[in-house]
What does this fold into?
Amino acid sequence: MLSTANGNTDIRFQDRPAMIRQLAKNRLLAAMSPAELELLRPDEAEFSRGDVLFDWHGRVDRIYFPHTALVSLLTHLKEGGTIETGTIGCEGIVGSFAIDGDSIALARSIVQIPGRCSVVKLSRMKTAVSESERIRMLVGHFQQAFAAHVLQQVACNAAHDVLSRCARWILMGLDRTEGDVVHLTHEFLGEMLGTVRPTVSLALKKLQNDGLIETSYGRIRVLDRSGLENASCECYGLIRATYRRLLPLTYA
It folds into this structure.
């Protein structure tokens, strides 16, 4: 059945695996067979910007496969701020750490770009991983790629300027959404990059003056992807290459 984030159920499907494969933009679900999807039996839900999937130190009882939503993992700082340590979209799973380990969330997972996710109970996911070698392999490859992603992003946040990090984030957002537009405010992007809104606005203005992007409130359109890649630091290419190696369908 197809449900919304508020729990309303409005459509019934006779063949859930066929329905999931038809709707799947999540690359991991799209790579699974009908039998493997039947093990997961995911529900579908729509999420709005700002929805919190897990809070820091909260208990995890479900995991999420984003289709069109984009989720940021935020780490809390002592003075009350936050900084993004990872981004998960249609290439992966939000909450995969709980499949093999503790079910206490290590970071706050918040929906940054609204959209649809498949939702699977953690207990069911654990059973599916134990029964299906292919599901176990897909989850393991994603976890490996995401660990490399986080390590590279931590280094990036420490070593690179706001302009190149801003370009990297826009490109990563573009990879995980449809079309050439990323829906994002300057303020929210500042929170993701661990800096203030005016600094982000200056970086975006420079990218716009260079003809790489076009901005309006809550919306960034990429005009010159190749130029934006040149403006980004090397971290974008390294992260993308890791996902392509471990999960070839990520950028199919």
Notes: Residues 1-14 have pLDDT under 50 and may be disordered. The chain is about 45% helix and 20% strand. The longest strand covers residues 70-76.
